Amino acid sequence: ASVFRSRCGFDDVTPIVVVMDKNRHALGVHYVALEQEAQTIDQRVGAAITDLDQLINEPQRVITQQPPVLLLANIVSPDFCRRLIELFNNGGHFDSGFMSVDSAGKSILKIDHDFKRRSDHFIQPGHPVHDELIAILSTRIAPEIKKAFHIDVRHCERFLVACYDQSGGYFRRHRDTTGTANAHRQFAITLNLNTEDYEGGHLTFPEYGPHLYRPATGGAAIFSGDLLHEALPVTKGTRYALLGFLHDAASEERHQAYLEGRAG
User: Fold this and answer.
1) Minimal CA–CA distance to 21: which of 71, 80, 69?
2) Helix (DSSP H) and strand (DSSP E) numbers for the chain
3) pLDDT value at residue 63
4) Distance between CA atoms of 9 and 130, rounded to whole angstroms?
5) Which of 92, 165, 141 is nearest to 244 (CA)?
6) Please, which pLDDT band fits residue 186 given cuts at 50, 70 and 90?
7) I need a labelling partner for 158 at 20 to 30 A (CA). Which of 61, 122, 141, 262 fits?
8) Could you tell me which of 133, 113, 106, 138 has the C-alpha nearest to residue 121?
């Protein structure tokens, strides 16, 4: 407790209220000193109640079939989501392609709007937001993957802020591990940045039924790159998401071997 207080900038005396989800992720930290005015105390209590409203409370139901998808809520705050959207809108973006394999078995980049319609902003390593994302990966995402799949995620290939706009942005059914260039991609992460602002745009995993996946703002779906999946068309508004590919140390060695021409 004292370490937590120190990291949050509190002493060992000030009363604090910590709102945590079921995975022990802190959604908010609030202090309420007794000498504060009643109005200030009411504001602190109100902020804590707002954090409580973010907790996922779904009714119990029987599941008969589902893909091995890890759904995590409240990985990042709404404010951080807005910062990522601003990066896309102010930092430049490009037409998003996908990797395919030519007749000789070589991995190639393709642009095909009949198959994929999306724009991406690449977050450069060294950018402050990139450093924040690495910290979030190590503290809030990697431990959950370790717990669920017994894999130590140590690397992220890249972070993209993606935009599927109202023209019907989509990505048809595909796997993320097609070809030697992508063989290292153990997990994909899709973190929604503005779920309440658009319609459509669900993730689906057709090998495991017709179910639709749509994490709330700040929440993510994490799944194996080998799973067949699809980003369905956006039917209204604009969808923003943070995308990345995650892998362990052994897969990073394979990736580097490919980049250096040492892979078959």
Assistant:
1) 71
2) 6, 18
3) 76
4) 24
5) 141
6) very high
7) 262
8) 133
